[in-house]
Amino acid sequence: MADRAGKSTSASRILREAVALGDEIGRGGMGTVYLAVTPDDRAVAVKVLRDGLSDPDARRRFRHELEALRRVRGPHLVEVLDADVIGINNRDLTDFSVDVDRTYQLLTDVPAGKTVVSESGFRTREQLEELERVGVDAVLIGESLMRAPDPEAALRELTGS
Length: 161
Known about the structure:
Elements: E1 20-27, E2 31-37, E3 43-49, H1 56-71, E4 85-89, H2 101-107, E5 115-119, H3 125-134, E6 138-140, H4 143-147, H5 151-159
Parallel strand pairs: 1-4, 4-5, 5-6
Antiparallel strand pairs: 1-2, 2-3
């Protein structure tokens, strides 16, 4: 898996609402659509654009799609955002099972320049080192630390400090 070079250090927008990506629900010429969950537990669809939308025809089609989405109003349409931070949730929210391979599967669909947070399922320093090697920027670790007899020692072990 290639490193995602070209990360932007200056965000043009601040993400107002983080979402956790779940299962893929569709794929097209411009990107992939995923089921996602907002922090307030709303199910949403998130479209992650593929790299290389630089040809004029693809950009024109995408602008047309955005304009159409912005004209539609309804309770099931969320705001169109360009997220700078993308969370990949390794926990299946239907049965709460965890599959850390989900990050590796979805990472290839994340455009360059985005900050990626891999969420859930990490217990070893080796896992974190591998995530860093493939370009994941941050991790969310909860359960393994909360279940540890000494959470501070467990965190030290994970971070190598």
